[in-house]
Write a structure and sequence with these properties.
5-stranded mixed β-sheet
């Protein structure tokens, strides 16, 4: 991976400017307000600066900090008399829209929609306030057709959608092999087939794709259908870490209710701490949340390998987000975006310092 460098302006290519695809993250289930029972708010609990906080996330494993934090009551405990309300999403554009409209205040989301949401608003609608997950992305292939990395040339490989985080990563990897692909059409030395995660397993079984560069649990679902892991994206990054999920907040909500934001961050830090200390229980809690929210739990042959490939952490890995944006520029999907101010890690570092833990860095992309 090339080193990160400052980025200055954003423009989607004219041919795709009208499409919402660049904002898309990888989710499962449908966009819906979550009206399932919430943790009880104690009648005598002290309320913070607002009656409620609305939290958004995706019902998938890379958002397990939110799944577990809700399931185990970590957020509500930290919020006291301020009620945590929740909404689930399956794509970045709808979550960004909800944040912009005030339908949610805080959300878990991938790097591409965070970058686009920030730059398209001129840096006015959101801040990244913490990290949540790293890894969980793999190149899985049909072992009968692809036996080595060089065999990927000439094959049909799926990514979730044009311009999303995994699509950009795959296009960058292709370029590093010295191969040529037109980013918009996906045609070239490799055929990049944009395929929704929900239908990728069927596309693989039918033979319409030879493999996929996808996040978990889609990668493990494909492996359960006979695919093999050819490459783990973590192996391409320094220390094998790169951001896959961030925590964002409306700048207006952050300004008006920093005590509430801090409480949610304390809940997130405690969730990650509990996940690390109780991996099997945390996996079960996340799967129970998935069953409640999407109607179906993941089978052991899918969730077990998927869970192992994701690292849950508080550090937003800011330098890797900067590099991911650079990859989108190199692929021709974006002009250089201005990311200065996308991070405000003040409250997260306050929470970490209070626990005696090391603070995290914004890679020079913090708010003034």
């Amino acid at each position: 991976m090339s080193a990160a460098r400052p980025l200055t302006t954003l423009r989607a290519l004219a041919a795709i400017a009208a499409l919402p695809l660049l904002l898309t993250a990888c989710g499962y289930g449908s966009d819906a307000q979550d009206d399932t029972p919430r943790a009880e708010v104690a009648a005598d609990a002290e309320k913070l600066s607002t009656d409620e906080v609305r939290i958004g996330y995706f019902p998938n494993l890379t958002h397990a900090t939110a799944l577990v934090g809700r399931e185990q009551g970590f957020f509500q405990k930290e919020l006291g008399g301020t009620e945590a309300k929740y909404a689930t999403f399956n794509a970045g554009p709808s979550e960004i829209e909800a944040l912009n409209s005030g339908s949610i205040d805080i959300g878990w989301i991938g790097p591409s929609p965070a970058i686009n949401g920030f730059t398209k608003s001129g840096g006015k609608n959101l801040r990244i306030i913490g990290g949540s997950a790293s890894g969980g992305v793999k190149l899985v292939v049909n072992p009968e057709k692809i036996k080595s990395l060089k065999d990927v040339k000439g094959k049909r490989i799926a990514t979730p959608q044009l311009g999303n985080t995994q699509d950009v990563a795959f296009l960058n990897w292709i370029a590093e092999q010295g191969w040529k692909v037109d980013a918009q059409s996906g045609k070239g030395d490799v055929s990049v087939v944009r395929t929704d995660n929900k239908i990728a397993p069927d596309a693989y079984k039918s033979g319409s794709i030879d493999g996929a560069w996808v996040p978990e649990p889609t990668a493990s679902k494909l492996v359960s259908e006979g695919a093999k892991v050819l490459l783990d994206e973590s192996d391409l990054w320094p220390d094998k870490k790169f951001v896959i999920t961030n925590i964002i907040v409306s700048q207006d909500f952050l300004k008006k209710h920093p005590d509430v934001v801090e409480a949610v961050l304390r809940g997130a830090v405690k969730s990650n701490e509990w996940i690390d200390a109780h991996p099997d229980e945390a996996k079960a809690a996340a799967n129970e949340a998935l069953k409640r929210e999407s109607g179906k739990a993941l089978p052991a042959e899918v969730i077990d390998p998927a869970w192992k490939s994701i690292t849950f952490l508080d550090d937003p890995l800011a330098a890797t987000l900067d590099t991911q944006a650079e990859h989108a520029v190199k692929a021709g999907l974006l002009e250089q975006p201005e990311l200065k101010g996308i991070y405000d890690l003040t409250l997260l570092n306050k929470v970490l310092e209070a626990k005696g833990e090391a603070t995290v860095d914004d890679a020079g992309l913090g708010a003034e």
